[in-house]
Amino acid sequence: MPSPLKGLFVGALTTMAQTAVTAYPESDAAPTSRVAQPVVIGHRGASGYRPEHTLASYELAARMGADFIEPDLVSTADGVLVARHEPEIGGTTDVAEHPEFADRRTTKTIDGIVCEGWFTEDFTLAELRTLRARERIADVRQENTIYDGRYAVPTFDEILALRAALSAELGREIGVYPETKHPGYFTSIGRPLEPGLVAALDRAGLNEPGAPVFVQSFETANLRALRGQLHVGLIQLLDAVCGPADLASAGDPRRGVDLITPEGLADIATYADGIGPDKDMVITRDTDGVLSAPTALVADAHAAGLLVHPYTFRNENRFLPAQFRSAGGDAEYGDAFAEYEAFLRAGIDGLFADNPDTAVAARAALFEPVR
Ligand code: G3P
Ligand code: CA
Questions:
Q1: Which of 227, 242, 320, 325 is most buried, by the most CB atoms less than 10 A from its CB?
Q2: How do the domains of the chain map onto residue ranges?
Q3: Which residues contact 192 (CB under 8 A, 6 or more apart)?
Q4: Could you tell which of 43, 58, 68, 242 is best to mutate to test the pocket of ligand 1, judged by most ligand atoms within 8 Å of the CB?
Q5: Cα of 311 to ligand 2 centre, how many Å?
Q6: Among 129, 186, 127, 121, which residue's Cα sits nearest to residue 152?
Q7: What's the pLDDT tens digit per position in 338-368?
Q8: Superfamily of domain 6-86+154-369, CATH level 4
Q9: Could you report the per-residue pLDDT of 25-69, keeping only the tens digit for each?
């Protein structure tokens, strides 16, 4: 299938990205006139302010100016796609406080990692709906914990409906950027994610060239297969340390860093429209955690015709490069704007942000609004 990036919306993004690449100088001088700007992806919604992967988190991200909202997708026992970062839900819901589900606690091996807890594929949607979301990293995001217990685990269909309603209300297209989580694992247990993903996008009228959609995966095989079923943008996620699980299970030891050679990027370009690398692959950090020099990744990816959307940008000291941390502890905010500026100047085409308002403000400081 030819690249779908010829439609109005995503096609416009491609043009923006190419403009950004050519117009953004490698100097200290901020551009004074821009016709394009990188996209802001609300990572798990606005997860810096609300428990991740809740409708409240996605809604806030859109209202803060995010161009896309990002649900991670897993399956229930009855094959419904819901938004959780991983199948295990002990860390992001109150399931441990439900005695009726105590016997569902179990140990599984997923992509070679042993996990203990409760898993979405062992719950029907009706059962999952009796749970409530809670903040994952309460030690860093204490403010978010006041929202614990207020929100359900949303289905992908609900997220798409919210996206449509917010697009109408806000007068701009809010994009959706779903990630298939552990797709090989879900296929292996008879709950493949892809049929439901394609069907949901079809139902929402979003499986069309130019629709405001990117589909992402850390695995390669399902993206290659989806190329023949989806008419939207596809993004190959890349981990700096690990390799795609489907390659590993096939005996292929390549890691993310092994896939970003010019040859590797050219291969990715045969089935995907962009890459979503760990941000450390775009600008490295030294052994002290100090942000150092940009790598060749942005230029190499652009030479292969690929967009570059690195993850994940967060305001708290715990996640910032060492030179941008403030004097406080892990939970204190540091100079997130300095980190954004470094990456925006590196020529990226978009980024995943837990604090979409900060990302939008950082972008506005460097780019003219799109006309
Ligand atoms: O999908 C981009 C980024 O979200 C990948 O990391 O683990 O937060 O899903 P993760
Ligand atoms: Ca994700």
A1: 320
A2: 6-86+154-369
A3: 75, 183, 186
A4: 43
A5: 9
A6: 129
A7: 999 999 999 999 999 999 999 999 999 999 8
A8: Phosphatidylinositol (PI) phosphodiesterase (3.20.20.190)
A9: 333 333 333 347 999 999 999 999 999 999 999 999 999 999 999
